[in-house]
Each structure stands twice: as structure tokens, then as C-alpha cells.
């Protein structure tokens, strides 16, 4: 991902008009409560509970976020920006293959913060109508740049695709989520990935 990558954060309303102050407060409270609920209960946390904890009705939640994926997209924008920033930092690394694997590790770490996120991201990669595509596409572009550089250096095979790597990365995060008693599992699987890339 060389250069600036646009991130679409327009999840709340299709119109270009700015939100009223009370609507903005509701929007921000919903994102804050969703972030807490997703971290505590996973990405399948009750939307009704999120709305209640934010002090609004479920209709208000749906006015801002028409579905769960739209709410998840809004919650994960900060992490997405961080992952995109990290890809830009790694774009000039001396060891392109190591940079790619480090970045994939950052994705695994992020996905591990919210139970169910890896599964949702895997599903979104095949569903162009999902609001989570707004997370997936910039990550795909970022990873493609890192992968291309690693391939050009001769350290990664030419037949490796970014789509396969992102699916593999989400699968590693999902496996780690299912094995909380083995905190080193994701690192071991990423090391195996590195061997398979060469």
C-alpha cells in the first residue's frame, strides 16, 4: 500500500449533510458501547443491549448503522487505520518477506481482540454487499503492496496471492480464538506460513 489509502468512514447516513449534535453524540455513544460489547462478548453481541447501554432505542441504532456489519465497520476504523499505517511503515523495510509476515501478524493480533471478528472478515471477503468490505478492501490493497515487494525481492513465491494470505491469516486468528489455552498458537502458525511462502 504505497501512498495514502482512502478509508470510508461514512457508515452512519447516506446524505452528505452533517449530523446534528445530538445525533453525533448518539452515534459516538453507540460506537463506544459496541466496541466494549464486542470486546467483552464477541462480535455477535446483542445489538439491543448495545443500544440500551448507549441510552438509545434500537431504532436509533439502525438509523445510524443499518446492520451489524455497518456497526462493526465503524468500530474497527481505528484499528484499520493503524494497520494501514503499519503497512506504510513496513513498505521500505530491508527484509520484505519479514515485513509481510510482521504485518500479517498485526492483523492476527487485531482480529484476536474481538471474538468472531476473524470469521466475519473471512465472510466479508466473499460478500461485496457487506459493509465490512470497507475494511477488507484497504487491507487487501495494503497487503498486495507488501506481497508484491516480497515477491520482487525473490523471497516469496510468485504463485502466492494476497487473497489467500488474508484468508490464511483470518484462519490463524480463528484457530487461536478457538484455542485460548495456547497463547503461542498464532505465532507458531505464522512461522509455518513464513516457511510456506518461500
From TrEMBL:
<keyword id="KW-0804">Transcription</keyword>
<dbReference type="InterPro" id="IPR001647">
    <property type="entry name" value="HTH_TetR"/>
</dbReference>
<keyword id="KW-0805">Transcription regulation</keyword>
<feature type="region of interest" description="Disordered">
    <location>
        <begin position="1"/>
        <end position="25"/>
    </location>
</feature>
<dbReference type="Pfam" id="PF00440">
    <property type="entry name" value="TetR_N"/>
</dbReference>
<keyword id="KW-0238">DNA-binding</keyword>
<dbReference type="InterPro" id="IPR049445">
    <property type="entry name" value="TetR_SbtR-like_C"/>
</dbReference>
<dbReference type="Pfam" id="PF21597">
    <property type="entry name" value="TetR_C_43"/>
</dbReference>
<dbReference type="InterPro" id="IPR009057">
    <property type="entry name" value="Homeodomain-like_sf"/>
</dbReference>
<feature type="domain" description="HTH tetR-type">
    <location>
        <begin position="24"/>
        <end position="83"/>
    </location>
</feature>
<feature type="DNA-binding region" description="H-T-H motif">
    <location>
        <begin position="46"/>
        <end position="65"/>
    </location>
</feature>
<dbReference type="InterPro" id="IPR036271">
    <property type="entry name" value="Tet_transcr_reg_TetR-rel_C_sf"/>
</dbReference>
<dbReference type="InterPro" id="IPR050109">
    <property type="entry name" value="HTH-type_TetR-like_transc_reg"/>
</dbReference>
<protein>
    <submittedName>
        <fullName>TetR/AcrR family transcriptional regulator</fullName>
    </submittedName>
</protein>
